[in-house]
Amino acid sequence: MSTNLSDARTRPNLAPRPTIGRLRLRPTRRGRGFIVGVVDAVGPDTNGFAPRDRVAWRDTGQHLDALIIIDQDDVLGVPGWVSDEKVVSYLGAGLIARALVRARPFSRGEQVRIESHDPLVAEMTAAWARSLGAQVVDAHTPEAQRAEVAIHDDRMSRRRGMGSHGRLAQATVEVFQAIRAGVFDDVALLSAAESRLAA
Questions:
Q1: Count of Cβ atoms closer than 10 Å to residue 70 Cβ
Q2: How far apart are CA 3 and CA 104, in angstroms?
Q3: Per-residue pLDDT tens for 93-129?
Q4: Distance between CA 85 and CA 193 in Å, rounded?
Q5: pLDDT higher than 50, residue 189
Q6: How far apart, in Å, are the Cα atoms of 52 and each of 31, 78, 112?
Q7: What is the phi/psi pair of residue 3, to 5°?
Q8: C-alpha distances in Å from residue 35, one per residue of 68, 94, 136, 170, 184
Q9: What global pTM score does this model have?
Q10: Confidence of residue 34 (pLDDT cuts 50, 70, 90)
Q11: Which has the closest alpha carbon to 67: 141, 16, 143, 139?
């Protein structure tokens, strides 16, 4: 269930000033595993973030107040040219797609089949593979078994692509570059109702 952000703004704000290495954030959108927001205040010894910066962080299903405190190492910077809707629609599955494409390299022109139980991950991995020159074949057709490369969506492949915060930050930059290049333009965005902030 989701509600408009204005509902969250009517609740009293109990968020204190951020302490060392922490950020106070104003969430704006959530969906598909990530939340987007704006930095409201930064704690001492915080590097790389300033008030009014746009950021994203993993959605753990937590209740969101109008302002929340998060460790800076759990936050990823968001460039101004990426809309909140594109961040919550594409970032989570885009990170997985990037990890899968990197886990099973292929050459330009090779036939590739994508095997995933998550339709969104399959769609975004296929879009990324096509952008790199692969001929993506439908995994449910007889010719799919003859594809030269099979990209399997499994836990190990996902884990190899993520790793430390630094690696995740670099992966996020690559997803944003793919968004800017139009790689996911044929993948449906979350609707405004789906991506509003939950109360």
A1: 20
A2: 40
A3: 999 999 999 888 899 999 999 999 999 999 999 999 9
A4: 11
A5: yes
A6: 21, 11, 42
A7: -135, 170
A8: 12, 15, 31, 18, 19
A9: 0.84
A10: very high
A11: 16
Tell me the per-residue pLDDT of 17-29, one tens digit each, with 9 for 90 and over. 999 999 999 999 9
Residue position matching structure tokens 């139009």: 182
Torsion angle in degrees (nearest 10) through CA of 140, 142, 148, 153: 20
* Closest among 177, 36, 29 to 95, alpha carbons compared: 177
Mean per-residue pLDDT for 149-167?
Answer: 77
Q: 4: Cβ–Cβ under 8 A, 6 or more apart, which residues?
A: 196, 197
Residue 173 DSSP code: H
Element (H, E) at 98: helix 84-103
How far apart are the C-alpha atoms of 24 and 11, rounded to whole Å?
16
What does the block give as tokens for 4?
């408009």
Mean pLDDT of all residues belonging to the chain: 86
Termini Cα distance of the chain: 8
